[in-house]
Structure formats: structure tokens, C-alpha cells
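Support request, please re-run this one:
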Amino acid sequence: MSDVLYAREKGKGGQTIVLLHGFGGDHSEWTDIQPNLARDGLVLAYDLPGHGRSLGVPGAGSATAAAKAVLADLARRGIARAHIAGFSMGGAVAALIALRAPDTVASLTLIAPGGFGPEISEPLLRRFASPASADELRAAMNDMTAPDFSMPTKNVAAVAAVRSLPGQREKLEEIVAVIAKDSRQGEISRESLAGLEMPVSVIWGTEDPVLPFTQSAGLPAGFKLHVVPDAGHMLPVEARKLVTTVIRGTVRGAS
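Re-run finished. Output below.
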């Protein structure tokens, strides 16, 4: 099992865009978004520590450790500056990367990000992490979306493939215990976020059952909030076109 962080690469040259998935996912969360963004340069869709092909990378569970791992991998690749987009847990990781190494981050797009308030649905994340069957996985994923949205079969199958990896379910159960104990999560202070100088966009669905939309309140004045009415948590699927458009617009705004 490799201890090197995995990233699926698409595109080349020019700017670099980094995509960070949410808890329990992997690079495949970006399958319908990454090729579009790759028209503009190199796009790296990572598997965060403890997930997918990065299952053996140390530090799984801590957003801070994941941020350090991504920064180390960018340095290994010789990438001094990149645009970072993160979803859910990946949003918390992206924000911590920007706080830790602001000169490395050209722009920041945060999609229903973790760490922006105390509340998080531990029961739903546990169902998602270790379902007893494919039907239970589908049910958990549907419960993470808006009430009238059904996750496409290909997305459920992609997550099921990750769950089938030896040791993956156990690792995710460990991570839940770190990031969502008693349905509370660690918070990134608004004061520290207010010090970020790169363009920052935030996308949030009003019906998010995992990380409540109310946690989008009180964002720093420089952050641009994109509200997605009647959408749930799984925005890379529920609002794919908008997510792609906002990432691209934030990247271009930084230029």
C-alpha cells in the first residue's frame, strides 16, 4: 500500500487547479467536472489520506494533516502555486491549506465546506461510511441530497467501489470519530479566514442535511457566497454545472 498521495491528472500546462473531495469519497467525485476544467490547464483530483488510493497515507482523519499532505505533494511535483477547490471535508482541508501557505493558493473555492460551524451530522456520515448493503449506501447518499433528488447509479457505484477496498470501511469509521464526534466538528475561526487575501468563493445548498446552510452566515466580507436554493449537500452532483462555473470564474477572477 503506497504512502504517496494519489491524484488523478488531467490537462497540462498553464495554471494548476486542485480538487479535494469530501469525507468517504475519492477523486471520482470530480469525474464530471475535472475534464471541463482541464481545458484551462493541469487539474489534480486528489484522494485524501485514508481514502481510495491514498488509504495508506499517514494522518487520515485530521484535516490539518490532510492539508500538510497535499502541500507536500504539490511541492514534490514542483507546483509553487495552485487554485484550490474543496468539497465538504475537502473544503476544510482547502481552507487550512490557504491559511497555512497563502502564497501557494491563487484562489479558493469552498463547496459546502466543513469547519465553518459546530454542527455536522454524525449519524448520516456513519451510515455513509459503512453501509450494510448497496441499497443502504444508496439510501444514505440520497439522504445527503435534497429531498426530491436521487443520486445517479454511476455515482453510487463509484462510492461502492471505494468501500470495497480492504480496510476502507474501518478507516472511515475511525475518521468519523475524529471529525464528527457527538455531531460536533472543529471550527476554523472567521477571524483567521478574514485574513485571506486570495479570491474566495463559497457554494452552499439551502437544504444541506450534513452541514447546515446556517453555517454560511457571517462569512468574511471578501468571500463571495453562491446560494443554491433547494439543494442538499452533494453539490458536485446536484449542482454540477454551477460548481464548475463557480470554480472556473474564481480561477479567472484571480488572474
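The beta strands are 7-20, 41-46, 82-87, 105-111, 200-205, 223-228. The domain at 7-120+186-254 is CATH 3.40.50.1820 (Rossmann fold).
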